[in-house]
Design goal:
- Chain A: It is a multi-pass membrane protein.
- The complex is a heterodimer of chains A (304) and B (365).
- With 304 residues, chain A is an all-alpha fold.
- Chain A folds into two domains: 2-77, no CATH class; 91-299, MetI-like (MetI-like fold, Orthogonal Bundle), CATH 1.10.3720.
- In chain A, 76% of the residues lie in helices and 0% in strands.
- In chain A, helix 1 (2-53) packs across helix 13 (268-299), helix 4 (94-124) crosses helix 10 (219-235) and helix 10 runs antiparallel to helix 13 (268-299).
- The two termini of chain A are 54 Å apart.
- The longest helix of chain B has 18 residues, at 167-184.
- Chain B has two domains: 5-234, Rossmann fold (3-Layer(aba) Sandwich), CATH 3.40.50; 241-356, OB fold (Dihydrolipoamide Acetyltransferase, E2P).
- In chain B, the strands form four sheets. In chain B, strands 6-7-8-3-9-10 form a six-stranded mixed β-sheet, with helices on both faces. A five-stranded antiparallel β-sheet of chain B has the order 13-12-11-14-20.
- Chain B is an alpha+beta fold.
- In chain B, strand 11 (241-250) and strand 12 form a beta hairpin.
- In chain B, helix 2 crosses helix 3 (108-122) and helix 3 (108-122) packs across helix 4.
- Chain B is elongated and about 75 Å long.
- The chains are: A mainly alpha (304), B alpha+beta (365).
- Chains A and B meet through helix 8 and helix 9 of A and strand 6 and helix 2 of B.
Chain lengths: 304, 365
């Protein structure tokens, strides 16, 4: 019985397997094709920006939007960096770029450090009301920018740092603490509390335990916090335009001024070059630290 | 000399929940105290209170005669080994061990010397430059021990240090801890839920349940004279047989009547027991129900029972039967001819019998 029925069945089974494997390959290629289309779609604006910034105005006027430049010129980049006019001044984005650096670097460092200390306290030194305080900090993440503009302007005025770079650093640190605390708290709750206990028995105090034990463990989440905060602060426009004055504006505000305050012919190539310059630092941060970013984001979710 | 650890009327509450109630324990220098009980009995909380990691809600706690009630852990002169080992993950083994000394500002020459000493003692010299993540469970355990040993404290605290190890390693490390205690003559407090660990290591055992101390005593006191039904059932493996019976006093002692499945009740007489209530629970260790001819003495009495299950365990064979409506385990020698379903004659040795009151669980003799 088995012989008779088993023999003719075998080719059938193989046939099904062959069909299904062919189907799998087709599915795979379909998937790749879709991914490719989307990748191109998302790369298109960058491509247009890059090529436009390398063309002369003449060529932009006469040529095709998505065509490669016939003649590569870096004039637009030079103009955008040091000659383009933002209102009455014509120094390019250079001074504002440095303003942004002066705002973003201390802002990122201070908010990350404060977030680390906060997260360490909330996760490892449970005190009465710790959860309420953490909930309130979390709530801070969801307050829209616009709501705090007026009170913040008043506060900065009272503190005497209105329109200054320290003022902008202060605003960004305050706004970032909610997020950085959340990151570090979620990372530190996965660290067993016995570690803190062991260090206490060993004689270490609050700060010693933080510096010697918790901070060295924190690289993945520090990277997350740095990327997040740097992107937020560098790309911020609303705070930058609200709380700055001539000379302390960040690059995002300067870019807006370059694009919007030109008279006569629009220098698209200069606009594009300025936009790329303004976007480069965040791109760089992602490229350098992106690997850690993904690792850090998922670090808390799966236990070692 | 003042006791090395003296706890009086200690209470611990979390909000309105009482976790520890009226704890009184005291140990002399060189003792090995084991806190044992089922999970949630408060033994780890008590250890944390001794370490100063949890504040106490009432009572006093003194180490070597000094009141420690409000002293922070670092000033209590204690060292602690944790269940998860709690090694600092970013530090090498050597740094882990010397961290405490570094924090306390011990000079580096002394650090080096003590590190070398402890590393030799625990045979972890080749591991000193590794990170905890590169070590096996047993090696981590040793490093955690090293971190405690290097401090040379007045009191060592162990919080279930062996429960993350596999069975074989656990037995090895148990012996090593025992040897360590003997060599150092140090005072130790050890928390475990494993009653065999408690029996083998302790010079003094505290059995806890629901935040209340059930009994304090030497291992043999706890084993042979359990204070109540809980201790009788918890300590010993297989557990003590607790058989409901009827007691009747007569001139020469007490007549104990135990219901037997499919037959007349077994009648045993205990010449030493006096004034037992009518309903009692008879506590007999499995080894006190043996094969006839292996035990001698006036307290040995024979009776036959029907066998339910036979479990050979190598050195011994455990035989289960039913008495007084409860399963009863007897420990026979390995060549026993007992077979399931057959009727077998057992020798009951009443020299170490315990009697308990059924309602309160209190020991009666």
């Amino acid at each position: 019985m088995t012989d008779l029925t088993a023999a003719p069945r075998r080719p059938d089974v193989a046939g099904v397997r062959r069909r299904s494997s062919a189907g799998k390959i087709a599915l795979r290629w379909g998937l790749y094709a879709i991914l490719l289309v989307f990748a191109l779609y998302y790369l298109m604006p960058l491509f247009v920006m890059l090529t436009t910034s390398l063309k002369s105005l003449e060529e932009i006027r006469t040529g095709d939007l998505i065509a490669l430049p016939r003649e590569i010129t870096f004039d637009a980049w030079r103009t955008a960096w040091s000659e383009a006019c933002t209102g009455i001044q014509c120094e390019g984005v250079r001074p504002y770029f440095w303003n942004s650096v002066l705002i973003a670097v201390p802002g990122v460092i201070i908010s990350t450090l404060l977030g680390a200390v906060n997260g360490y306290v909330v996760a490892q030194w449970q005190f009465r009301g710790a959860n309420v305080i953490f909930a309130l900090m979390l709530f801070g993440c969801f307050i829209p920018f616009q709501v705090v503009l007026l009170p913040m302007a008043r506060l900065l005025g009272l503190m005497g740092i209105a329109g200054t770079i320290p003022g902008l650093i202060f605003v960004h640190v305050i706004y970032g603490i909610g997020f950085t605390t959340l990151f570090f708290r979620n990372y530190y709750v996965t660290i067993p509390s016995e570690l803190t206990k062991a260090a206490k028995v060993d004689g270490a105090g609050f700060l010693r335990i933080f510096w010697a034990i918790f901070l060295p463990l924190s690289l993945p989440i520090v990277v997350v916090s740095v990327i997040w905060q740097f992107t937020q602060i560098w790309n911020d426009f609303l705070f930058g335009v609200s709380f700055s004055q001539a000379g302390t504006q960040p690059v995002t505000v300067a870019l807006n001024n370059i694009v919007n305050s030109t008279t006569g012919v629009k220098a698209y190539n200069v606009d594009m070059a300025a936009a790329i310059i303004a976007a480069l630092p965040t791109l760089l941060v992602y490229v350098v630290a992106g690997k850690y970013f993904i690792r850090g984001l998922t670090a808390g979710s799966v236990k070692g | 000399m003042a006791p090395i650890l003296d706890i009086r009327n200690l209470y611990k509450n979390y909000g309105t929940t009482e976790v520890l109630k009226d704890i009184n324990v005291s140990i002399e220098s060189g003792e090995f105290l084991v806190l044992v009980g089922p999970s949630g009995c408060g033994k780890s909380t008590l250890l944390n209170c001794i370490a100063g990691l949890e504040p106490i809600s009432g009572g006093t706690l003194a180490i070597a005669g000094e009141d420690m009630t409000d002293v922070s852990p670092k000033d209590r002169d204690i060292a602690m080994v944790f269940q998860s080992y709690a090694l600092y993950p970013t530090m090498s083994v050597a740094k882990n061990i010397t961290f405490g000394m570094k924090v306390r500002g011990v000079d580096s020459a002394t650090q080096e010397r003590k590190l070398a000493e402890v590393a030799r003692q625990l045979q972890i010299e080749p591991l000193l430059n590794r990170r905890p993540g590169q070590l096996s469970g047993g090696q981590r355990q040793r490093v955690a021990m090293g971190r405690a040993l290097v401090r040379d404290p007045k009191l060592f605290l162990f919080d279930e240090p062996l429960s993350n190890l596999d069975a074989k390693l656990r037995v090895e490390m148990r012996t090593e801890i025992k040897a360590l205690h003997q060599n150092l003559g140090a005072s130790m407090v050890y928390v475990t839920h494993d009653q065999i660990e408690a029996m083998t290591l302790a010079t003094k055992i505290v059995v806890m349940k629901g935040g209340v101390i059930q009994q304090i005593g030497s291992p043999s006191e706890i084993y042979n004279r359990p204070a109540n039904l809980f201790v009788a059932d918890f300590m010993g493996s297989p557990a003590m047989n607790l058989i409901p019976a009827r007691a009747q006093g007569n001139g020469s002692g007490t007549r104990i009547e135990i219901a037997r499945e499919g037959g007349e009740p077994i009648v045993l007489t205990d010449a030493r027991a006096r004034d037992l209530p009518e309903d009692v629970i008879v506590g007999l260790r499995p080894e006190d129900i043996a094969e006839p001819g292996f035990r001698h003495g006036e307290a040995v009495q024979e009776a036959s029972c029907k066998i339910d299950i036979v479990e050979p365990a190598g050195a011994d064979t455990y035989v289960m039967t039913h008495l007084g409506g409860k399963p009863v385990t007897a420990r026979l020698h390995s060549e026993t001819e007992a077979a399931p379903g057959a009727t077998h004659t057992f020798a009951f040795d009443l020299s170490k019998v315990s009697y308990f009151e059924p309602e309160s669980g209190r020991r009666l003799n």
